[in-house]
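[[Sequence with tokens]]
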Amino acid sequence: MNALLKSLFAATAFTSITAAAAVSDISGTEAKFTFEGTIAPMCKTSSGSSNSVTGLKLDSSQQTQEIGTLDVWCNTGENATTEYTSANGGFLVANNAKGSKIAYTLNIGDTSGIDLQTGTYKHSKATTAGTGVTGETQATSLKITPQSNGLDDAGTYSDTITVTVSPN
């Protein structure tokens, strides 16, 4: 058994010496390492500090009312593209037996009169976004103008707008 171990040790030592010799045969004064990685363009959003409004004024005044702020951050240094979708197709829908509806328009910052009854609205390259490693966002005000005539059916009317944000 000792002879076998001595042979194995000798073979291992020879292999180690050979490997070291191979490295020492390559001579030079510098070594170069090239590497890279990619961070994909990305935006993040939240609905700010207020994303649930009760007590909308639904009368004939058709008063424009704030429903919240959209906070956006992107790592591209550019404004974001946002898409707005209404759960009720651009209507405030009542919890009454009729499911009564009141149309409304949406304002996104300085863009006003958006009708979500036609489907998703895409606000291309227009929503202000924060940038930088601190993650500070920029806020955009969201407002609606109910198209109430003051003679609508009794009930509590509501809708939910979903906003999807993407980089440019």
Remarks:
- DSSP finds one helix and ten strands in the chain.
